[in-house]
Amino acid sequence: MPSARRQTVSFSYALNDRWGTFYEFVNTFPERGVSQHFFHSGVTYLVNRNTQFDIHFGFGLSREAPDHLIAAGYSVRF
């Protein structure tokens, strides 16, 4: 896989003790090819201090970026 540089700007906000939301703008600059610009946002749910679920969606802001994205995540802190 070719290498690329990636820059992100993100903002998160706690809605209460368990729920939160986030917004992120992502720029990807491949070694070869055209840069991609993408925006995504989602909600997080903190199950406990060390476990979190999230669901997020996003869309490309440039022709080269993916048109859209819907995903879910699960994080565990050790």
Provide a descriptive summary of the structure in words:
- The chain is an all-beta fold and 78 residues long.
- The chain has one domain (9-76).
- It is 0% helix and 71% strand.
- It has no helices and 5 strands.
- The protein has strands at 4-14, 19-30, 36-48, 51-60, 68-76.
- A 5-stranded antiparallel beta sheet has the order 1-2-3-4-5, with no helix packed on it.
- Strand 3 and strand 4 (51-60) form a beta hairpin.
- The mean pLDDT is 93.
Topology:
Layout: E1 4-14, E2 19-30, E3 36-48, E4 51-60, E5 68-76
Antiparallel strand pairs: 1-2, 2-3, 3-4, 4-5
The termini sit apart by 29 Å
Structural category is mainly beta
Global shape = elongated
- Count the beta strands: 5
- Total discrete domains: 1
What number is the mean pLDDT? 93
Major sheet details: 5 strands, antiparallel
Q: How big a fraction of the residues is strand?
A: over 45%
**Main β-sheet, spatial strand arrangement:** 1-2-3-4-5
- Tally of separate helices: 0
Q: H/E element string?
A: EEEEE
Q: Could you name the ranges where pLDDT drops below 50 across 5 or more consecutive residues?
A: none
Report the C-alpha radius of gyration, rounded: 15 Å
Tell me roughly what share of residues is in helical segments. Answer: under 10%
